[in-house]
């Protein structure tokens, strides 16, 4: 009797186990086919790029059919998979991408508004207007090489006397430099004085013309005619005031006709030569007004204008020399003085610009993050001009009225896997942005969906 009872107990236990196994199998098959409400376990969830929890189910909370377009790894967003599973790149589940999540285009990213607020994202508009582009540079005073006087001997002779002059001395106009003795003038002057006594005006005029052709100054001829005394010594004087740059005469030496005796640089005007970067040389056209401030005269402003932009660039500093002319009526500006220069822009053309802090330089491209509707952000490649007081001129890529991210763009990069979007723009990996929390991962070139590939490790068809 006891044996019979034990057999029945074993039978009921075995039957219960079989029934449980059959029920579990039927429930699992029924759930997989979508034919009933039975759901033995919750589907796996993952954090989507929008910051909200996403499910791999094809039906959303509202009952709407949302079948994924593909699955991807947020760390390698360029690689698409046809089935869910574990990422072959990272130890994490693949994330589904739905059709309605990409309404902003493949290059756009959607961030939940609450996350945008938490990240402290600040937007700035794309504006059009006139930008004042002052340019500060440094330079030094040099001689005005257009105001140079060369003193030469008009005839051969001997240096009878040299006045107390030396290179570097500042002299006034008509200051004496040297006395030259010209023996060949003696005969011509004696003949001229004899003709003066004869009273023949035609012969006197011819003799006077001969003295001038011999190189005798008109003032000396007039002095001989008035005093009726020959003079074979002539004093060479400075034709203008300035600085003696060179003095080539010494007492007792012989000079030939046309020999250079002295070189004098005028000081009525001086040059200020400043170095400008190549990219900013357009700010200094000829005729542009300039303000100069000299260390030697603090608090004073000297006005000038650009007279030339030299054609040769410095290969080491990548700068161009700009030549500025300054008036120097009192001779206070001396060559070698240091000066700071400010050039004001005369360009009144309205230009498109954004805040410079919104520009992202990837190394190969220049990108801004354009804010769209419903929390979408689109990385956009732009072509930029110069920077003016914290504003960057936009030459191509944006339109007036758009809004771009000026603060928090690197946090968006980290939170929403913006690296992958920028990588698709650039065709490769993007350097890590400042403030990014994600490690740098090399991205793979985007490939078409592979229906036969199972991302689960160890499983392939």
Class computed from helices, strands and strand pairing: alpha+beta
The CATH superfamily of the domain at 152-263 turns out to be RNA polymerase II/Efflux pump adaptor protein, barrel-sandwich hybrid domain
Q: Count the helices. How many?
A: 7
Q: Which blocks of ≥5 consecutive residues have pLDDT under 50?
A: 27-58, 415-419, 421-453, 456-461
Specify the overall morphology: rod-shaped
Please compute the radius of gyration using only Cα atoms: 46 Å
Distance between the termini: 58 Å
If classified by CATH, what would the architecture of the domain at 152-263 be?
Answer: Beta Barrel
The CATH C-level class name of the domain at 152-263? Mainly Beta
CATH topology of the domain at 152-263: OB fold (Dihydrolipoamide Acetyltransferase, E2P)
Percent of sequence in beta strands:
25-35%
Biggest pleated sheet: 6 strands, antiparallel
Mean pLDDT: 75
How many strands in all?
29
